[in-house]
Write a structure and sequence with these properties.
About 10% of the residues have low confidence. Helix 5 runs antiparallel to helix 12 and helix 12 runs antiparallel to helix 13. By secondary structure, this protein is an alpha+beta fold. It is built from 15 helices and 7 strands. It is globular, with a radius of gyration of 28 Å. A hairpin with a 3-residue loop joins strand 1 and strand 2.
């Protein structure tokens, strides 16, 4: 069968290898965006001699593209029935085009060079791991560009020695990545520049996680709405800063992993599979630490918002402020986790409903008091019970407070 192409997946991405024209047709027919796989970098893994010459000719004869596997794209390639290979964590398939570019089918017989050459398959898996991490690094760069506090500003504003060392490591890694792009490999000299960097990055990550845990503990210790409002506002500001630091840490850790894989590919290619799997496990451990810490913080903010919702009639200004801060923290954490590929729990849309509900109660309470009590029923059974018990007692008091507050705001507006 003509027009055969090879598919290789490591769970994070899909490599499509074959004749350049066929590869492009396949990607277009399946609607899969892609980037260059960089197959020429595999040549350095085979040294010299007949094996290297054969591998070189196979690499030169093929084109390779890499596709990030999202939920949607994973479903599209599932129909090709990729099977496990002898390379750990890697599955593959051979597909062909019998006539129409819309009818790519799995090929039962025959196998392409990459599927029968363990060294090439291992090298391709290593490059795919690098591309997946570089994709995350790019997404983190976009994330840092969209938030108010740039991570460099946050780091430079800190006097702590741990964060100060992070700046130096950051510059060294960027320099090393630039050399890698120019040279196409990571030499021993180049690697020596950054081989001590992981310890500094790990210290900074641990420090940032402790700061998030401290914010969660501080929220947990507050019970009065006034204290909750003040602490929640602080958490709203500080959370974004520490998420920025964590994002930069994760980005630099991925950069180090990319450099490590290059170094192993060039120095000890036989160890590439195990090193790739080790890096994957370590990366997952980092994600788990970050996931637990951010979940704990959001849970405390959610609890504070629940408390504020229940007391919105007694505190029509401060209660919505608590909910608003909780919403901002949850939204920020949700965005941050998405960039790192961590699934989020409670969605920001739910917290937005809290804000809307609390704002409705506050506004109506400021206008009519009694109507404000009735509007509180939308906040749930606990607030409804409270509204029924205090309706007659608080109605006039709320109206009077509202009039005084609005009068004061109008006077300040005139003065301004």
């Amino acid at each position: 069968m003509d027009n055969e192409i090879q598919l290789i997946s490591d769970g994070d991405g899909l490599a499509v290898i074959g004749n350049a024209t066929d590869v492009e047709r396949f990607l277009v027919s399946e609607g899969l965006p892609s980037k260059d796989l960089g197959m020429q970098r595999l040549k350095s893994a085979f040294g010299t001699g007949a094996t290297a010459a054969q591998a070189g000719s196979e690499i030169a004869a093929n084109s390779g593209r890499w596709v990030k596997l999202t939920q949607e794209s994973a479903q599209r390639v599932k129909k090709f029935g990729l099977m496990e290979s002898k390379t750990p964590g890697v599955s593959h398939a051979m597909v062909g085009k019998p006539g129409s570019i819309k009818n790519w089918l799995q090929v039962e017989k025959g196998a392409g060079s990459f599927l029968t050459n363990p060294a090439l398959l291992s090298g391709a898996a290593g490059i795919m791991a690098q591309l997946a991490m570089q994709q995350t690094m790019d997404e983190i760069t976009d994330y840092l560009a969209t938030i108010d506090e740039k991570v460099d500003d946050v780091l430079r504003a800190q006097k702590d020695a741990v964060l100060s060392r992070m700046i130096g490591v950051d510059l060294l890694i960027e320099e090393t990545m630039t050399i890698r792009e120019q040279v196409g490999r990571v030499s021993e000299v180049t690697w020596s520049k950054v081989q001590g960097a992981p310890a500094t990055i790990a210290d900074t990550q641990a420090y940032a996680l402790r700061q998030l845990d401290a914010l969660a503990e501080k929220m947990e210790s507050k019970t009065k709405i006034g204290d909750l409002a003040t602490t929640a506002k602080e958490a709203e500001s500080k959370t974004q800063e520490w998420l920025a630091v964590l994002a930069r840490c994760f980005q630099l850790q991925d950069a180090i992993a990319v450099l490590e894989l290059d170094r192993v590919l060039n120095a000890t290619p036989d160890d590439l599979d195990q090193h790739r799997l080790g890096l994957r496990a370590a990366r997952q451990n980092r994600l788990s630490l970050i996931s637990r810490s951010t979940e704990r913080l959001v849970a405390r903010m959610n609890a504070a918002a629940d408390t504020a919702n229940a007391k919105v009639l007694l505190h029509p200004t401060k209660s919505p402020a608590v909910v608003q801060s909780a919403n901002h923290v949850a939204t920020g954490v949700h965005d941050f986790r998405g960039r790192l590929g961590i699934e989020s729990g409670r969605q920001s849309s739910e917290t937005r409903r809290w804000v809307d509900a609390a704002a409705v109660v506050r506004d109506k309470a400021l206008e009519t008091g009694a109507k404000g009590v009735d509007a509180a029923r939308s906040l749930g059974n606990e607030t409804l019970d409270r509204a029924n018990s205090v309706k007659g007692k608080l109605s006039n008091e709320i109206v009077e407070r509202a009039r005084r507050r609005r009068g004061g705001e109008e006077e300040r507006g005139e003065e301004g």
